[in-house]
Each structure stands twice: as structure tokens, then as C-alpha cells.
Amino acid sequence: MRKESILLTVLLITVFLIFLYPSLGWKIRALMTIPAAQNGDYKNIAAENELLKARIAALENLKSSASGPQKLVQASVYSDYPFNFKNEILVDKGEADGVKVGQPVLLFVSQRGSLLIGKVEKIFKNSALVETIFDSRFKTSVRIGNRGVNSLLVGGSAPKLMLIPKDSEVRDGEGVYSASSDYPLGTPIGVARNIRISSDQFFKEADLETAYNPNDFQTVFIDKNYEPQSAK
User: For site-directed labelling of 44, which of 1, 113, 155, 218 has its Cα 20 to 30 A away?
Assistant: First the structure.
């Protein structure tokens, strides 16, 4: 009872002081408020976290890097706001810059590396059309986790990881990276989420999570050093 009386007295004194000195109330509120991370900072941290997961999975599964040094060309993304479509993007680098059809297109995340977001679909003299992983036509072989479980990435507004062997051990949050000869081997793409048995009961499937908004693309990088095997 004595503790409750003391607390009540302190509360009344605090309210009285705030009433007399309003600025004191703002100071108390500031002390009690935990600063929230900026939305953009959170997105960057989340994207970098997924990049690290995918890169760690690739490094643990691959004995050596097959991609070699990258020669990246930076390209700015044209805007069709408010009618932007995330399945295809138009960039300001093309044939005059050495860009070729099929070259991988990457989203720079941090000094630790980049995420694969698509490939060059068409080229013009000073621009190129990029097909992203959010296009329903996009399909490529990938691997999941440090055990290198095979899967087929099927693009779309919500990309899926299909044809995962039913008896394989795939965990939620494991990194996904490229395994097709069309892209540098082991290039991070995202992480696997919501793993489940497919509708035909023969395979597992999962969602591909990418911690970025494709509608926010402003700058991407084209890997001019890599020539897809299908283009040879």
C-alpha cells in the first residue's frame, strides 16, 4: 500500500510539473521514445541480410567461383511513373555501350555484392530492355542453401521456387543462388520462404523473397564480362 502511495505521489508531482512547464513534458516524451529506423534503412538492411544468406549458401556449396571477375556497367532505369511495370525495365545503356542480349542484370546492395534481378532481353543503340525475375516468362535453374538443393525459379509478380525434390531438406530463410549457365554460377538472388508440398504431392515448392521493391529501381548493373552459354 505504501509503494502505491509513493507512486501516486510521484505521478501527481510529474503531472503538476508538466502543467507548469510544458517543455518538460516534451523532454520526458523524448526520453521515453525509442528512435525507429528509417524505412529506407530497414529495406537496405533486409536486402543486405538476404544477400549474405544467399552468398554464404553459394560459397559453402561451391568449391570455387566459376564467374571470374565482373566487368559491370552502371545503367539508370527510365521511369514510366505512374505506370511502372516491374516485369520489364528500360535502361539507358545499349549496343553502343557493349551491352548484349542475355547479359545478367544485377542490383547493387552493398560492398559485399549484388543480387541477380534479371537479364537483357532486347538491345537498342543507346538503351536496353531488361526482363526481370518478376516476369512470368522468366525461368532459370537455381540452388537453395548450403546443401545446394536444386530448384526451378519461375518468375512472376510473386516469384516461386518449383520442383524442389520432396525428400530434400530445405529450410525457411535459406539463400537462393543461380545454377544455370545463363548466369554466373552462385550469384545470389534471394531467400526461400513458406516451404510447402506442391499441389501434385510430388515435389516441394516455396516463395522467393527479395527484400527490395522492384518499382523503386533507379540504378542497376549489367555484367558485360559474362556471356551466357545459350548465346554461344
Answer: 155
Its pTM stands at 0.71
In contact, 219 and 74? CB cutoff 8 Å: yes
3-state secondary structure at position 25: helix
The grid cell for 88 is 520489364
How are the residues of the chain apportioned to helix, strand and coil, as percentages rounded to the nearest 5?
25, 35, 40
Domains of the chain: residue spans and CATH: 39-232 (2.40.10.340)
